[in-house]
Write a structure and sequence with these properties.
Layout lengths: L2 H10 L7 H23 L3 H13 L2 E2 H8 L3 H13 L3 E5 L7 E5 L1 H10 L2 H9 L3 H25 L7
Antiparallel strand pairs: 1-3, 2-3
Length: about 160
C-alpha cells in the first residue's frame, strides 16, 4: 500500500457514512420512528412496549430481571415502570421470600393489551419493505454483533492493577 492509499484509507475511516455506530444509530432511529404510530394506537411508548414484551413473554418478573432483559439500569427502568403502573398495566409487589426484591405483574388491562399489540410486528414488517427472512437474518447479525462487542469489551477492559 503506497502513502496515498494509506492516507485515503485513514481518511475514509473518519467519514460519517463509514462509521458502524452511525449506521446503527440511523437505523435505530428509523425503526423506532416506524414503531411510533403503531404504538400510539395502543397507548405505549417504545420503551414501554419493550417492557411489556418481556412481561407478556415471561409473566411475573423481578424488576432486576426486567432491567437485565432490556439492558437498562434501575434508574432508567424505575420511571418507566411508574408510568406503566399509573396507566394500570402493571403492578409492583415486594417478593414474599425476599423483601429486597420487587416483582412485576401484569394487571388484567396489561394482559388484555397483548391482543392489541399482536398486530404490531406484522405491520412493522410491512413498513420496512423487507422479507421476514431478511429481518430474521439482520436480527441474528445484530445479536451476534452485540455479543461480540460485549465479549471484546470484557476481554480488553483494564484490570484493577492497570488503573
Amino acid at each position: 500500500m503506497n502513502q496515498d492509499q494509506r492516507g485515503t484509507a485513514a481518511a475514509a475511516s473518519l467519514l460519517l457514512d463509514d462509521q458502524l455506530c452511525f449506521a446503527l444509530y440511523a437505523a435505530q432511529r428509523a425503526v423506532t420512528g416506524a414503531y411510533r404510530p403503531l404504538l400510539d394506537e395502543i397507548g405505549l411508548t417504545y420503551p414501554q412496549y419493550l417492557a411489556m414484551l418481556v412481561l407478556w413473554e415471561r409473566g411475573e418478573v423481578a424488576v432486576k430481571e426486567l432491567g437485565a432483559a432490556l439492558k437498562l439500569d434501575y434508574g432508567t427502568v424505575s420511571p418507566l415502570l411508574k408510568r406503566l403502573e399509573a396507566a394500570g398495566l402493571v403492578r409492583r409487589e415486594r417478593s414474599a421470600t425476599d423483601e429486597r426484591s420487587v416483582r412485576l405483574l401484569l394487571t388484567d388491562a396489561g394482559g388484555a393489551l397483548r391482543e392489541r399489540a399482536e398486530q404490531v410486528p406484522a405491520r412493522l414488517l410491512v413498513s420496512t419493505g423487507l422479507q421476514a427472512s431478511e429481518i430474521a437474518r439482520l436480527r441474528a447479525d445484530l445479536h451476534r454483533l452485540a455479543e461480540r462487542v460485549a465479549e471484546a469489551g470484557t476481554s480488553t477492559a483494564p484490570d484493577a492493577s492497570e488503573r
